[in-house]
Amino acid sequence: MDVIEIQKYLPHRYPFLLVDRVLELEPEKRILAIKNITINEAIFQGHFPVTPVFPGVLIVEALAQASGILAFKSLERSPEDGYIYYLAGTDKTKFKRSVVPGDQLKLEVEIINLRNHWMKVAGKAFVSNELVCSSQLTCAEQKVS
């Protein structure tokens, strides 16, 4: 999936769209996506100008966005159907090292439990096959008017 198709499943846009490409997707199972970290990211103007570090909360958000794509594809829905997925919770989140400009985040998400209106997943983010973040995320579906 390229970024044009990704935008069909996520309501996010620049500067908050944090999934650049989907490499693999198995509905009801897993997704593998990437986020390229560049110095041009708006966040680096303030975090931190002298020593730029990609914020951990945005790594978790990138995992959540990948989870949203996986949920939509697994349940055969899209935002056009009037649905949206929200990050409803995180558990056991750990950060192992900093992510900096030039890194490519590999986002791996596997479904733990999938229900009609929510999903629990295990998410991991890697840079060069080195684990940088792990988290269990809960995503909740909501019908929008």
What is the CATH class designation?
A: Alpha Beta
Helix percentage range: 10-25%
Number of domains: 1
Please state the CA-atom Rg, rounded to the nearest Å. 15 Å
CATH-defined topology: Thiol Ester Dehydrase, Chain A
Uncertain parts? none
Q: Mind telling me the CATH superfamily name? A: Hotdog Thioesterase
Instruction: Please give the largest β-sheet.
Output: 6 strands, antiparallel
CATH architecture: Roll
What's the rounded overall pLDDT mean?
Answer: 96
Query: How many individual β-strands?
Result: 6
Estimate the global geometry from the Cα principal axes: globular
Q: What order do the strands of the largest sheet run in, or round the barrel if closed?
A: 1-2-4-5-6-3
- Look at the helices and sheets and give the structural class: alpha+beta
* Tally of DSSP helical segments: 2
Helix and strand succession? HEEHEEEE
Determine the N-to-C terminus distance.
Answer: 27 Å
**What percent of residues are in strands?**
35-45%
Please describe what this structure looks like.
- This protein is α+β, with helices and mostly antiparallel strands.
- It has one domain (3-143): Hotdog Thioesterase (Thiol Ester Dehydrase, Chain A).
- It contains two helices and six strands.
- The chain has helices at 3-9, 56-74, and strands spanning 21-26, 30-36, 83-95, 104-114, 118-127, 130-143.
- The longest helix is centred in the middle third of the chain and has 19 residues, at 56-74.
- The chain is globular, with a radius of gyration of 15 Å.
- The two termini are 27 Å apart.
